[in-house]
Amino acid sequence: MVDFPVLETSRLTLREVVESDAAHILRIHGDAEHMRWFGSDPIRDLDGASKLIALFASWRKEPVSGARWAVTLRDRPGLIGTCGLFRWNRNWRSCTVGYEIAPAHQGRGYVKEALKAILTWGFREMRLNRIEAQVHPDNTASLALLEALGFLQEGRQREAGYWADRHHDLLQYALLNAQWRTANVD
């Protein structure tokens, strides 16, 4: 990807995560309770937020690359969350999806709307056949979201994740291009 793909939905603009988003990233990723399902320990300061932004930017330059979008409301400035496709295996035409949103914006359908845009983009532009997600078994909101988008559970990965000083089981989900094209997803 030379130019970062900007995606628009009816309520959202998805754009590159940039350094000026650091304070918003810190508010989301610094909240230990909110980030308990994210798969990494919370960041502690603006320097940590800047490093996370740099990590997202580096994905575009790596052989196993990806993209992380800032989720913003079309009518208001400021990042309310992020979502992305990463661990892109070009040979297998697969990748992994990840996402999070600020607590104040949960329950409004923003993540579903953003994911619809990036899943469509991934299947069309990256020519993906498979998009995977790994979710903590207790993260019921995320599990319901994935299932509403057509993802199917494929199994349990025992102690596959490590954060908050302990190992965590993760549920493996996947969505295939053929499912996405034929599904009636609202």
TrEMBL record:
GO molecular function terms noted in the UniProt entry: acyltransferase activity
Keywords for this protein: Acyltransferase, Transferase
Signal peptide (from-to): none
Domain N-acetyltransferase: 12-182
Pfam families named in the record: Acetyltransf_3
Record EC number: 2.3.-.-
Source superkingdom: Bacteria
Record PROSITE patterns: GNAT (PS51186)
Name of the top EC class for this enzyme: transferase
Protein name stated in the entry: GNAT family N-acetyltransferase
